[in-house]
Specification:
By secondary structure, the protein is an all-alpha fold. 90% of the residues lie in helices and 0% in strands. The longest helix is centred in the last third of the chain and has 35 residues. It starts with a helix and ends with a helix.
């Protein structure tokens, strides 16, 4: 990962956003979204490497794929939610940002619910003997 290249791209995008916000405010959010999308595309290769490494570690540790899958999906929900909320905050729409954050929290909880149910059933089974 070339973090220096990504950092400079982010700085240039932020400066372009600030400039365009004063000249054409209706286009400025598109610049921010486009810049962020370009950074995500730059990170796609690294994301695939991380995913492959996680799969290898799961096999070595003997961990069930479902448990790690829930964890990775929850992490993805958190990243996407934070990204979307930050864009909403940048565009002075804090009520929409709060709604997006709430949706992300509910999505993560809903995703983890089957795992939580299994833990509760295990606990009840241990208590009852």
């Amino acid at each position: 990962m070339d973090i220096v290249k990504i950092s400079f791209f982010g700085i240039i995008t932020a400066m372009l956003y600030a400039l365009i916000r004063h000249l054409k405010p209706e286009i400025a959010p598109l610049v921010a979204i486009g810049g962020a999308a370009a950074v995500l595309v730059m990170l796609a290769e690294n994301l695939l490497d991380v995913s492959g490494s996680v799969d290898d570690m799961m096999k070595l540790a003997g961990i069930e794929k479902e448990n790690v899958s829930v964890l990775m999906k929850s992490l993805g929900i958190c990243v996407v939610t934070q990204f979307a909320a930050d864009i909403c905050y940048d565009n002075s729409c804090s009520s929409m940002a709060a709604a997006v954050e709430l949706a992300g929290r509910i999505g993560a909880i809903a995703l983890a619910m089957p795992m939580l149910k299994a833990v509760a059933e295990l606990a009840i089974g241990l208590i009852n003997g």
